[in-house]
Model the fold of this input.
Amino acid sequence: MRVAVLDDIHEAYEGTAAIGRLRQRAEVKIFTASFGDPAALRGFDALVPNRERTRFSRELLEQLPDLRIIAQTGNHAYHIDLAAAQERGVVVAKASGGFSTGAAELAIGLAIAVMRHIPGTDAAVRAGQWPTPLGRELHGKTMGIVGLGHVGRHVAKIAKAFEMTVLSWSRRPDPGTATALGVQPVELDDLLRASDVVSVHATLAPETRGLIDARRLRLMKPTAYLINTARGAIVDEAALLAALSNGWIAGAGLDVFGQEPLPAKHPFTALRNVVLTPHLGWPTDQKYEQFAQAAADVLIAYMDGQQVPRFVLEH
Done:
């Protein structure tokens, strides 16, 4: 089998134990930059994409006659035309690598950064100034978690270490899990009214697109902060811009956006009460190790004729 690892822009796969293990069974080439011409991928039986950096359209798949399996890292396949893959007999396998502890840590980091004015004061000190803004602590505040999945649960554990009260809302509530974490499940509107920090960790689905809209943003306290490390489309960006500009809420920490990369001179970039990061939640040392391990496991199982977990086309 010939395997291509795509979009390894951090040059993180080479040297991992998992890639070494895979090389004992297959020829592996790692692309550390865009492959450019699809012809560069011809002759490969298997592809390992890094999250959603490459879009697998019908047109691209039609140019890859040798492709038999895509070992998709992460938990989503929004970027893959599953119908086209199915028609061509290409297996789209799940190499999820578990959940992203990095996204959970970043959510807390963004909350601290915006509440303590870290980016702005860093820039000011570098410019020779010495500002003394009033900061807000996490300690003793209420954290509202929208989506108590794996990442949301990890955020809850960290928030409890700050001695925060933690509320949660999920589309598929699991009271037992919430209780075990010391988290109080509530309705979404009630969570928004009560929380000092609202951290979004829901999965993007038709039911969650625009979930946090203007009406719901107006439910939040004027002293509250919104953190989003999940998907940009879960929050109505026009409504959030109004909320940040007009003082409906105190600030936001955003790692994801409706359009990525964020367009130059986007209105968010002019606001001083928002901290912006370029989708940094998952790219970490640990996550790449997990992805490499998961991809190797999937491809070796496939070569051995075993069933592998797959992304299924939903009708």
Remarks:
- The first strand starts at residue 2 and ends at 5.
- The chain has two domains: 2-98+284-303, 101-276.
